[in-house]
């Protein structure tokens, strides 16, 4: 009797083996077909070699190919640029910044080198932890060591400025002012006792208080939900009918009322001629003096969370970053320290269960809706503050079960708040993946993680365009502050994602110069990611310039300032590392105009940030001079603006010839539309196709040309072929 024929079984494909998932063996398999990804089976026999042997063979092959291709002129050129010349940069030239140069530079075979070992082995902004010592703080009895948070824009600028200063001017490395908490503005208040009657003097009239309330709602009401407007207005009328009785019945509401006045005062009369708060922060200091202990907040948890959130936002706006995140202020007349912070608001919301799916039958629709709006406001601000100071998020997204609103049927305000929350979730993903402590830049999985972020941003781009078209559409094509700031937050996600790579490229570039080597060519994958970052940074500045032209720039809230500083700083840094990538250098003039507007209106923090940008310009000048020197020595035409054909140059708005920014009447406008600076999402937003294209290039299978499990050289995705 013939034995039954056994069914042939095929080995699992590479992706299923890596995920340790069951594979159907078909081509494509069921798992890959369901996920809509490439299904790759390995038919060839595996041959494992050591990394050192592989690099040696690759290096020898590259030397043979290069010796045939490189001309004798290029070899002589590179020999003239030895280590001695590179370590003695020439004097800065006036046109070095504006001269376009090729981004990828060639070198003779003997001048090629592998990247520094530490350059891409770990995320340089995460591992190891870095601190700065502030001797002035020691003298003033403050904490001496300051942590450089991984995602913090302020910390990133300090890392870069210190790195460049130690390399180029170690004997005269100017100390960069740290501008820690309390440097920009000073607040002093004393705690009121229970016996004292709350101060009711110096308050605005009833109609002016309503005007201040409407101003606060205009600036904050769309992107956040800091209080229930209907209930607050009802309490406001009761207060002006009988102020003493209302304060006695609800002292915590009176604190909230003073905070609304504090924000209204900041928006309406932003000129702050002194760093001492009593001249312009009287409402805020009065509110802080009336705040009860944390134990007294529980009887009214919703109101308490709203008050704590407003306090944290105000403190962050006056550059008390750590204070807003961790604590409020020492009371000058007391020895104890109060702990009012965004973390308190988050924890109270967690204790009250606002992160969950609240029962309508028990709490009622109105209360559930208010709690949901308040939760997402706290979540958004916690994410923003965590990113700005470089701390982890307070809660994992998978622990949140409360839902967002359906943008097709909900109100416009809820649709905008929901979109804001979704963008915050994307930033949270950036923190947990790209900035995770165990994630390495040399790990072949990192491109996939960055790619997943870009895919998520691409999805947000489509949803934001749909939201604008259906819910926030305006026939006048005027600037929408709401749409502009949602778009700015998306761009910030891209910039923060690219920072570790840019900083690692800086360290690698400096190491090559120390060794007298010409920098290696970047892979197309890294080029795409850097170009995407440049595109987001340049569009960020254009959006802010549009807001400035319509008097919609926020000079009190911290977010516009962080956006302009993040964008201008990363553009200047990239221009020093890769001089040919940014042809139009008007971005510095744009950023200066935006910062000057904030400075004129009394924002002292903007002065600090402008000073940091000026210092960066000084420190990157030697890099620009060295690049210019190399081009001139090699006989390249400095004005040719040559760029390798395989480098994507058509994505960045900063390089587009039809967008030429110039100064007219003391402000920057585009010469193609001098009559107005309208905000066009299609021009200033993120391109869906660009995001998808960059994300696809970051897929490890496509980058390495092999399945993930067979990647021999984990850092191949960073460098082009030798």
From TrEMBL:
List each copy of the Zn(2)-C6 fungal-type domain by range.
12-41
Matching CDD domains:
fungal_TF_MHR, GAL4
Which sequence ranges are marked TM in the entry? 252-271, 296-315, 482-506, 564-583
Keyword check for Amino-acid biosynthesis, yes or no.
no
Q: Which UniProt keywords apply?
A: DNA-binding, Membrane, Metal-binding, Nucleus, Transcription, Transcription regulation, Transmembrane, Transmembrane helix
Q: Which InterPro entries match?
A: AtrR-like (IPR050987), XnlR_reg_dom (IPR007219), Zn2-C6_fun-type_DNA-bd_sf (IPR036864), Zn2Cys6_DnaBD (IPR001138)
Give yes or no: UniProt keyword Cell membrane. Answer: no
Please name the GO terms that the record assigns under molecular function: DNA binding; DNA-binding transcription factor activity, RNA polymerase II-specific; zinc ion binding
Report the record's Gene Ontology biological process terms: DNA-templated transcription
Question: What is this protein's record name?
Answer: Zn(2)-C6 fungal-type domain-containing protein
Species in which this protein is naturally found: Penicillium cf. viridicatum
């Amino acid at each position: 009797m013939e034995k039954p024929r056994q069914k042939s079984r095929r080995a699992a494909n590479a992706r299923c083996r890596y995920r340790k998932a069951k594979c159907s063996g078909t081509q494509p398999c069921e798992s890959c077909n369901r996920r809509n990804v490439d299904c790759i089976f390995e038919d060839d026999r595996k041959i494992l070699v050591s990394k050192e042997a592989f690099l040696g063979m690759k290096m020898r092959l590259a030397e043979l190919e290069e010796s045939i291709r490189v001309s004798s002129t290029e070899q002589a050129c590179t020999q003239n640029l030895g280590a001695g010349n590179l370590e003695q940069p020439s004097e800065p030239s006036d046109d070095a910044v504006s001269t376009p140069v090729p981004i990828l530079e060639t070198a003779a075979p003997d001048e090629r080198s592998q990247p520094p070992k530490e350059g891409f082995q770990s995320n340089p902004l995460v591992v190891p932890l870095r601190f700065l010592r502030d001797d002035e703080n020691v003298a003033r009895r403050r904490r001496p060591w300051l942590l450089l948070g991984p995602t913090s824009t302020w910390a990133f600028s300090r890392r870069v400025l210190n790195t460049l200063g130690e390399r180029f001017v170690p004997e005269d490395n100017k100390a960069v002012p740290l501008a820690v908490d309390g440097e920009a503005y000073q607040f002093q208040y004393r705690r009121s006792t229970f016996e004292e009657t709350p101060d009711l003097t110096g308050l605005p009239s009833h109609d002016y208080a309503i005007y201040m309330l409407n101003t606060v709602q205009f600036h904050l009401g769309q992107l956040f939900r800091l209080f229930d407007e209907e209930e607050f207005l009802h309490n406001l009328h009761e207060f002006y009918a009988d102020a003493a009785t209302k304060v006695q019945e609800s002292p915590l509401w009176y604190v909230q009322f003073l905070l609304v006045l504090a924000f209204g005062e900041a928006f309406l009369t932003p000129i702050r001629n002194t760093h001492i708060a009593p001249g312009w922060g009287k409402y805020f200091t009065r509110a802080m003096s009336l705040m009860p202990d944390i134990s007294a907040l529980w009887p009214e948890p919703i109101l308490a969370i709203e008050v704590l959130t407003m306090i944290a936002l105000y403190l962050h706006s006056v550059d008390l970053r750590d204070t807003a995140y961790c604590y409020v202020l020492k009371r000058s007349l007391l020895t104890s320290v109060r702990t009012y912070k965004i973390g308190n608001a988050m924890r109270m919301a967690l204790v009250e269960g606002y992160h969950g799916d609240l029962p309508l039958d028990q709490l009622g629709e109105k209360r559930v809706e208010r709690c949901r709006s308040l939760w997402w406001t706290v979540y958004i601000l916690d994410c923003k503050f965590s990113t700005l100071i470089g701390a982890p998020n307070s809660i994992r997204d998978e622990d949140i079960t409360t839902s967002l609103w359906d943008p097709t049927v909900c109100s416009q305000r809820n649709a905008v708040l929901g979109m804001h929350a979704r963008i915050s979730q994307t930033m949270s993903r950036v923190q947990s993946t790209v900035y995770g402590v165990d994630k390495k830049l040399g790990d072949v999985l990192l491109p996939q993680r960055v790619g997943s972020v870009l895919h998520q941003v691409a999805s947000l781009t489509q949803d934001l365009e749909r939201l604008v078209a259906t819910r926030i559409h305006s026939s006048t094509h005027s600037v929408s502050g709401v749409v502009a700031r949602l778009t700015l937050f998306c761009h910030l996600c891209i910039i923060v994602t690219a920072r570790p790579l840019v900083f690692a490229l800086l360290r690698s570039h400096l190491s090559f110069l120390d060794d007298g080597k010409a920098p290696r060519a970047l892979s197309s994958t890294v080029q795409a990611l850097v170009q995407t970052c440049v595109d987001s940074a340049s569009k960020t500045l254009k959006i802010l310039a549009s807001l400035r032209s319509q008097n919609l720039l926020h000079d009190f809230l911290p977010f516009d300032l962080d956006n302009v500083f993040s964008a201008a700083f990363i553009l200047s840094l990239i221009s020093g590392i890769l001089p040919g990538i940014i042809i139009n250098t008007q971005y510095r003039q744009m950023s200066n105009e935006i910062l000057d507007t904030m400075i004129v209106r009394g924002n002292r923090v903007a002065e600090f940030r402008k000073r940091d940008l000026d210092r960066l310009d000084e420190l990157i000048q030697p890099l620009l001079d060295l690049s210019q020197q190399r081009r001139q020595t090699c006989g390249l035409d400095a004005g040719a603006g040559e760029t390798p054909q395989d480098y994507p140059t058509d994505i960045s708005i900063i390089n587009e010839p039809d967008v030429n920014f110039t100064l007219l009447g003391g402000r920057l406008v585009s010469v193609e539309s001098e009559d107005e600076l309208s905000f066009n999402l299609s021009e200033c937003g993120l391109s869906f196709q660009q995001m998808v294209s960059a994300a696809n290039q970051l897929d490890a299978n496509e980058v390495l040309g092999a399945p993930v499990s067979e990647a021999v050289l984990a850092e191949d995705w960073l460098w082009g072929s030798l």
